[in-house]
Design brief:
about 170 residues, alpha+beta, 3-stranded antiparallel beta sheet
């Protein structure tokens, strides 16, 4: 089963937050990134201490809610709600390893679910190097786009019929 990215709404003490998390059952150690109502990062599974101006009880409640959402696979596909994310949230997701840039513009990123078009076959060496590692698959796809060996499907009104479309999640699952 391939990994998907999800976004869930959680409420803590009457405040609404978004939780982004990868989901690929079974979830043994959930990872997550909590965003405020403006889509800005508040904290993540490594850095709960980002929230320094709030009580320890509140931080623990937010961490518990985010952890539960990630563990249970709550939410909807992130690709359906990308508009929620601020540039700083995308930057933090990149630092965590969930997204890789292929260009300088904020929207020039490859997520695990981003379809990438190859004009011919996907190189066999790419398949071998990406197997089992979504982060590596993201990096390799970004390199292919930078070298003009592939294009994100978003650049086409419709992708040409010849060629192959893959995602990093699919490459890693191959």
């Amino acid at each position: 089963m391939e990994m998907e990215m999800k976004i869930a709404n959680v409420s803590v003490d009457g405040n609404e937050y978004f939780v982004i998390h990868p989901f690929c059952p079974p979830v043994l150690r959930p990872t997550w990134l909590a965003l405020d109502a403006d889509g800005k990062p508040v904290c993540d599974y490594w850095n709960i201490e980002y929230i320094t101006n709030l009580s320890e009880e509140f931080r623990e409640a937010l961490e518990d809610a985010a952890y539960a959402a990630a563990k249970d696979g709550d939410g909807e596909p992130l690709e359906d709600r990308l508009a929620v994310l601020s540039p700083s949230a995308i930057e933090r997701a990149e630092e965590i390893g969930w997204v890789v840039r292929y260009g300088p513009a904020p929207e020039e990123v490859i997520w695990p679910f981003t379809p990438v078009y190859f004009w011919g076959d996907v190189p066999s060496s790419l398949l071998l190097q990406a197997r089992g590692d979504v982060w590596r698959a993201l990096q390799l796809l970004a390199i292919c786009v930078r070298k003009w060996d592939a294009d994100p499907v978003s650049v086409f009104a419709e992708p040409p019929e010849e060629g192959i479309v893959v995602t990093a999640a699919e490459l890693a699952a191959s």
